[in-house]
């Protein structure tokens, strides 16, 4: 593989977290070990998140009000950019993402082919087999909605595993504070004419992540948020 | 005798007075709200006006016309408030995010 060597310290892994205190230390440990600069954005958790992180060399940012995942991600992007991050990776706190795949997401960016990579669990048959059927149906619906709203027809939707360079960081200004940001990111990519690519990733569906994941009903909320955004424009 | 006209006119005049003294930096709203209140007062004083207007637009009674207009204004007001709340929320988010970035800490924290 054509890999340019990059100091992992210049790779900022941003992790929005809301009441993930019981698992977050496990999620962070391998990232810290790999030498990434880890940034946790605590979205006003009411559990022991802050204590769970106390002994780890990670950046800790706290929202004093619960704003939602989109806002937490945007805080992370702004923070990483202000500290001069070369590359940024969005990573889930609940242990769904595999830290070993960060290199795969970064590679197309580091060799200068694209500005932003989006993880997709619909690229490899073995990854598709992992997705629970009910989830698959919802995701297919989300893919359709993303396509209709943005004109970008991707293989996956609402996959929080993404990587980008500084150019993309400067363009990502999400205003949707809740889950509709996943579609908004696509609109921003299109608007800023960023080069993008989907990279196959494996999503681990543990009982914990399934419990914490979005309920099917919430997809209706996301849809309403998107319509509101299109009507009110803010 | 306390007649219905007095009961309706008192709060309407109070409203007009309120809008005249407040909302100094919101000229458009001020004018719209004062006009609506004044129109209400006019309708109370001369009920024949809303009746005539109703007939003009094909509604049976003035009272019905006022009800319909009220419903429309009510929902328009709701939409207006909603977009204001969204703006407030966006400002609040901006503040919360700014504070989070300014107060960022780097671990580990040894107690």
Counting DSSP E segments of at least 2 residues, the number of strands of chain B comes to 1
Number of helices of chain B: 4
- Return Rg of chain A in Å: 17 Å
**Oligomeric description of these chains:** heterodimer
Overall CATH architecture of chain A: Alpha-Beta Complex
Shape of chain B: elongated
CATH first level of chain A: which class? Alpha Beta
**Distance between the terminal alpha carbons of chain A, to the nearest Å?**
43 Å
Indicate the proportion of strand residues of chain B. Answer: under 5%
CATH superfamily of chain A: Spore Coat Polysaccharide Biosynthesis Protein SpsA, Chain A
Explain how this protein is built.
- The complex is a heterodimer of chains A (234) and B (111).
- Chain A is built from 10 helices and 7 strands.
- Chain A has helices at 24-33, 49-53, 69-82, 102-110, 125-128, 133-150, 166-171, 181-191, 207-212, 218-232, and strands spanning 11-17, 37-42, 59-62, 87-90, 116-120, 162-165, 196-200.
- In chain A, α6 packs parallel to α8.
- The longest helix of chain A is centred in the middle third of the chain and has 18 residues, at 133-150.
- Chain B contains 4 helices and 1 strand; from the N terminus they run ααααβ.
- The mean pLDDT of chain B is 90.
- Chains A and B meet through β3 and α3 of A and α4 and β1 of B.
- β3 (59-62) of chain A pairs antiparallel with β1 of chain B.
Set down the secondary structure blueprint.
The complex is a heterodimer of chains A (about 230) and B (about 110).
Chain A: E1 11-17, H1 24-33, E2 37-42, H2 49-53, E3 59-62, H3 69-82, E4 87-90, H4 102-110, E5 116-120, H5 125-128, H6 133-150, E6 162-165, H7 166-171, H8 181-191, E7 196-200, H9 207-212, H10 218-232
Parallel strand pairs in A: 1-2, 1-4, 2-3, 5-7
Antiparallel strand pairs in A: 4-6, 5-6
Chain B: H1 4-21, H2 27-45, H3 48-56, H4 62-102, E1 105-106
Helix pairs in contact in B: 1-2, 3-4
Which labels suit this protein?
heterodimer, A: 234 residues, alpha/beta, Spore Coat Polysaccharide Biosynthesis Protein SpsA, Chain A, seven-stranded mixed sheet, 42% helix, B: 111 residues, mainly alpha, elongated
């Amino acid at each position: 593989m054509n890999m340019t060597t990059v100091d992992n310290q210049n790779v900022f892994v941003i992790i929005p977290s809301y009441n993930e205190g019981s698992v977050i230390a496990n999620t962070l440990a391998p990232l810290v070990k790999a030498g990434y600069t880890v940034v946790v954005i605590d979205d006003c958790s009411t559990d022991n998140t802050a204590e769970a992180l106390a002994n780890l060399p990670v950046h800790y940012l706290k929202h004093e009000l619960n704003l939602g995942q989109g806002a937490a991600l945007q805080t992370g992007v702004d923070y990483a950019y202000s500290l001069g991050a070369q590359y940024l990776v969005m990573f889930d706190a609940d242990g769904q993402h595999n830290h070993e795949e960060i290199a795969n997401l970064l590679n197309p960016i580091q060799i200068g082919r694209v500005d932003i990579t989006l993880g997709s669990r619909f690229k490899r048959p073995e990854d598709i087999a992992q997705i629970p059927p009910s989830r698959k149906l919802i995701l297919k619906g989300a893919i359709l909605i993303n396509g209709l709203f943005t004109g970008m027809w991707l293989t996956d939707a609402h996959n929080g595993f993404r990587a980008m360079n500084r150019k993309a960081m400067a363009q990502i200004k999400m205003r949707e504070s809740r889950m509709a940001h996943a579609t908004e990111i696509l609109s921003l990519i299109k608007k800023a004419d960023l080069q993008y690519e989907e990279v196959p990733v494996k999503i681990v569906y543990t009982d914990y992540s399934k419990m914490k994941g979005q309920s099917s009903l919430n997809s209706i909320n996301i849809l309403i948020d998107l319509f509101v955004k299109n009507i009110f424009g803010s | 005798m306390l007649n219905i006209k007095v009961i309706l006119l008192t709060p309407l005049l109070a409203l007009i007075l309120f809008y005249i003294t407040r909302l100094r930096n919101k000229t458009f709203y001020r004018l719209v709200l004062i006009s609506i209140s004044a129109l209400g007062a006019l309708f109370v004083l001369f009920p024949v006006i809303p009746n005539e207007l109703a007939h003009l637009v094909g509604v049976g009674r003035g009272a019905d016309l006022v009800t319909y207009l009220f419903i429309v204004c009510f929902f328009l007001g709701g939409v207006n408030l909603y977009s204001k709340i969204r703006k407030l929320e966006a400002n609040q988010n901006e503040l919360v995010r700014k504070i989070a970035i300014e107060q960022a800490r780097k671990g580990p924290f040894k107690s």
